[in-house]
Every structure is written in structure tokens, then in C-alpha cells.
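Methods, example record. To illustrate the input and output format used throughout this study, we show the complete record for Septum formation initiator. The sequence lines were provided to the predictor; the line carrying C-alpha cells was produced by it.
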Amino acid sequence: MALPHAKRGSKSPVGGSNPSPMEKISGGRLYWVLLALLGLALGATLLFGNKGLYHLYQLRQERERLFQANLSLKDENERLVKTIDRLQNDREFIEDTIRKELNFIKKNEVIYQLAPEVGSGPKVTQAPALGPPPNPTARSKRTGR
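The corresponding predicted structure is encoded as:
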């Protein structure tokens, strides 16, 4: 039985060496250089291509950022739902909200406004005292006739 690298009809020398793969193919060096370049190109495409590993890494980072933003929006939504419920059902909360947002004050309430400068005294503002509402049945007396 003949060895695959031996030619038909000739015997290989006993002390001879096997030819290398580059010697078998004509232009063997060129073949290996092109094969190495092709491997580098495929590796670069795998890492940095349109759907490469770097793109996958960026997509995962974007997904994590969107997930965190979604969680914060859910928390904000829950807070707003609770606020709406309180505005519909809680009269004290409605009153506090109106007083905060519209700067309303209660009858005979005193508001202190502190000046930002150091050393100046506080400014006191007092709501005007309102008397009892007028009685529609009571008529004023006219004199002079």
C-alpha cells in the first residue's frame, strides 16, 4: 500500500523528509498570507461589523439605560396616581395644594418672610381681618328724612 504523498511507480527514500504543505501548493506563501488576511477581516467584521460584538455591547448598554428610565417613569406614574386620588377624595390635601401653589392664606393667618440678608429683621405680613358676613335681612337705618 502506497502512502498518499508518494508518487506511483516510485519509492520514497527511507531517510527522506515529507514535503511541507507550502511546498505542495504552488504559491504557498501567498496562500497563507491571503488566508491570514481573510481571517483578520472576518475577525474584524465579527467584532466591529454592523451586527458585531461591539454593536451587541452597545445595544445591551442602551437596553439597561432604557430599563432604568422605565423604572423611574413607573415610580413617577405611581406618585401621580396617588396625588390624583388624594385630589379627588381628600379635602385637606386639596386645601394644602391650593395654599402652596396659589399662595392663599387662611383668615387671621400670619406669614413670616425672612430676608436673605444677614442681620435684617423678619418681615411680617398679616391677612386683613374679615368681619362676619353681612346679614341680608338686616336693613340699615336711613336718617335725614
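Annotations derived from this record:
The beta strands are 110-113, 123-126.
DSSP finds four helices and two strands in the chain.
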